[in-house]
Amino acid sequence: MKFGTKAVHAGVAPDPTTGAIMTPIYQTSTYVQAAPGDHKGYEYSRTGNPTRNALENAIAELENGKYGACFGSGMAAIDCVIKMLKPGDEVISTNDLYGGTYRLFTKIYEGFGIKFHFVPMGDLESVKTKVNANTKLIWVETPTNPMMNIIDIEAMAKIAKAAGALLAVDNTFATPALQQPLDLGADIIMHSVTKYLGGHSDVVMGALVVKDKALSERMYFIQNSSGAVCGPMDSFLVLRGLKTLSIRMKQHCINGKEIANFLKDHPKVDKVYWPGFESHPNHEVAKKQMSGFGGMVSFTLKENTIAAATKVLSGTHLFSLAESLGGVESLLGHPASMTHASIPKEEREKTGVVDSLIRLSIGIEDAEDLIDDLKKALA
Ligand SMILES: *Cc1c(COP(=O)(O)O)cnc(C)c1O
After folding, report:
1. What value does the mean pLDDT of the chain take?
2. ∠ CA 270-276-278 to the nearest 5 degrees?
3. Which of 64, 158, 284, 333 is the most core-located residue (most Cβ within 10 A)?
4. Which residues pair with 299 in a beta bridge?
């Protein structure tokens, strides 16, 4: 089945009691049992809820996985993965990482005795040199946020396998519409569902998808034990969002390309980060593992100051200045002071997050209008 068809039908079936075509919002905490243990598969909504389960199945199917688990946020989903580890275990992660993930790893889990190595994963050798007997997890984010670096998932899967470690991929930016990490050898897929999967900037949610049964049991055990689940109303909203994921991503890709090309030729713009350019250092890998380059574009200004960036950031009308990404409406953000403020200046500048860096989450509006908006703000 092609992806567009799957996006509409995955995980959902008419409600057995009424025939309702849309999965009902089972806004309930508990389920009545006829006799102790005699129930219809649901006991308590932290453990399982039919609306959430429909969504978990849908996301698992879209990722070509078998088991899905949804959480109250993307961070809660990442938290579940790290809880699969023990003190003394080591993680190798990309150095150009979502700020919240970096904070969770360094400010919380280092304190629990887990060791994290942050390396530029475009360079396979830098990963291999960190592998040792304690390596239990390789954490990949691709494309990366906000520098749009591309990491070779297949190559990482080989390194992880040889090390006896799990490979987890944060697939938030690409979504299964553009990239299927499990098919490339990953063990775990993580999503900030808040972004493209939800797609309408109205829900905060996370998800994990795995293929392996034993791994799924660890995942569900932690999901139920730690309890960071999402609610049925939010699950319903995301089930609705998923139906248009395929067509939304197509439009995000079209607009991303138009705007990246517009920025590249603009006299005030210095660098443009978009994996679709042939000059992008990892363009070949992007072409190999992605079916489109998405709607995220970052750029810097020739005048590399916060003041110059601020002029652009407050000069747009269609692009709203806000955190987050992946919604139908266009947003722009300033990583140095917003999403990446929790990373020390020295660290962030090493990865390219300089003062004038602006990140665009390009929506599904008409590209001409978006370009017009940026033109005025840059002027
Ligand atoms: C937003 C985001 C997260 C965190 O997800 P939340 O839903 O905000 O908790 C993790 N990774 C990436 C790439 C993100 O963009």
Report:
1. 96
2. 80
3. 333
4. 272, 358
Q: What lines the ligand 1 site, CB under 6 Å?
A: 73-75, 98, 100-101, 141, 145, 170, 172-173, 192, 194-195, 204, 206
Give the mean model confidence (pLDDT) for residues 252-280: 98
Residue 78 CA: nearest ligand 1 atom is 10
* Domains observed in the chain: 3-242 (3.40.640.10), 245-378 (3.90.1150.10)
Catalytic residue check, 158 = no
Could you tell me the CA-to-CA distances from 204 to 48, 191, 192, 311, 351 in Å, in that order? 19, 11, 8, 30, 27
User: Per residue in 10-52, pLDDT tens?
Assistant: 998 999 889 999 999 999 999 999 999 999 999 999 999 999 9
- Told to judge if 369 belongs to the known catalytic residues of this protein, a careful annotator would answer no
- The residue type found at 316 is T
User: 286 with 148: CB under 8 angstroms?
Assistant: no
- Ligand 1 pocket mutation, candidates 145, 175, 179, 201, criterion most atoms within 8 A of CB: 145
Q: Name 129's Cβ contacts closer than 8 Å, sequence gap at least 6.
A: none
Tell me the whole-structure pTM to 2 decimals.
0.96
- Which residue among the candidates 6, 89, 96, 98 is catalytic per the annotation? 98
In terms of Cβ atoms closer than 10 Å to its own Cβ (0-12, 13-18, 19+), residue 375 is: exposed
Q: Which residue has the tokens 């849908």?
A: 58
